[in-house]
Amino acid sequence: MTRKILLCLLAAALLAAAAPRKPKLVLAIVIDQFRYDYLTRFRSDYTSGLDKMLKTGAVFTSANLDHFPTVTAIGHSTFLTGATPSESGIVGNEWYVREEHHSVTSVSDPGASLLGGKGEGSSPNRLLVSTVGDELKIADGGKSRVIGISLKDRAAILPSGHMANGAYWFDNDTGGFVSSTYYFQDLPSWVKDFNQNHPADKFAGATWLNHTMPAAASKRLYAALAASPFGNELIEAFAERALEAEQLGTHGDPDVLTVSFSSNDYVGHQVGPDAPEVREMAIRVDKLLGQLFQAVDKQVGLANVLVVLTADHGVAPVPEVNAARKMPGGRIPQQTFTLAVERALDNRYGEAKWILNSAEGSLYLDQSLIAQKKLDPAEVDRVAAQALLAIPHVFRVYTREQLLNGVPEDPVGRRVLNGFYPRRSGDLEVLLEPYWLFSASASGTSHGTTFSYDTHIPLIFMGTGIRPGQYTESIALNDVAPTLAVILAVEPPSGSSGRVLSEIFSQ
Ligand SMILES: [Zn+2]
Fold first, then answer.
1. Closest residue by Cα to residue 82 from 498, 457, 421, 461
2. Each residue of 54-103: pLDDT tens digit?
3. 12 Cβ partners below 8 Å, 6+ apart?
4. Residues designated catalytic
5. Deepest in the core among 31, 54, 100, 166, taking most CB within 10 A?
6. Distance (Å) from CA 170 to ligand 1 centroid
7. Is residue 476 pLDDT above 50, yes or no?
């Protein structure tokens, strides 16, 4: 008996995998709006970076987002903090600030100025928790270098974190990459040099599938690049430049480079997941990843690099495309919901302007008006929720009171609760039935729901010490950050709520 136990313990010890050795560089990649099924549907089209990751990486087939709404800012903040909005405070791309009577973005910062362009800068000040990069820098006294790159400010800033050496995003006015005074007082010279070569201008008149870019180097061209493969080409070129100029992965302490490819999202919104453009964008991202891996290999050696790739969210099919294949879905203008709430509250409590702000399904009621009328806020919420639930194709409504007191723990309820941060969230959250969009326009599509077309994402780790293969267990995006923390031998980020994916550690 004792011998049996000993043998079991010995076997367990042999099976328990040690964390891979520390990489010199963590290359953390997000493809903005990239459903898991783009890996399988277009598998035979991949010959470069994605092909390499699928062949030699640890590929999770059932990774999902565990929060609501499934939008860019939240996906990007969750990736390297391991925290859902309930702890990170990043409850959306934008939210309404009651005390200030206006909406803010997840990274807007009136205290910062744009560098390389005109206007207000952006910063991670609204992010309440640390990132993997922050923990690395805290552990080694700031010696690790952490850089974030994207077309979108939030997608560059939120994964890289508070202590990042720099975050860079694209500016439609100048056609160059910009940053903010949050990081430094002047752009590094390599960034200025990159911009001085007018990298965006070479795409004037460029074509892809049956699309043609504006012919002249102009603001119109710069704005159009986002919804084309050329936006991603700019990101890749800038990432290569950053790698070299910042000498990432070439000193004693591990560095972090976060790269978010934004153009897939802009294209995907316009045409939906079934359009040929989306396949083309995926094929081109595969090639760009191959180029980036080559540059990284040359400078650092891929054996010294840990690559982790994911997406911030998926996307719903275009409702009209779905209808044509006998699947459910449709569009409801957002006004339908605000009108229903205004009418119900007018009827019950007398005419007033009840709604301060609404964005998709998130409604903010005027709490000072409710207090002034000496009404019970929870009752007002319930009256509004009843009116909303009477609208066809409303799936669920969650009130502030419900979310504060706990909701049934089904997957939808859990995701909504994970997305709730009382000071920043609205009073009512409206969820539509699967495949239904908040939309007044006649074309295009979106994301944001708790359904799998929005939550099921790719997640691949690749590097020395990572055991290649397919992993079919259900896991969450929140699991990435604590896993990286173990590999890097640093503290897990402060709001991290996931588990360590130790099954991918080779022995
Ligand atoms: Zn989007």
1. 498
2. 999 999 999 999 999 999 999 999 999 999 999 999 999 999 999 999 99
3. none
4. 72
5. 31
6. 16
7. yes
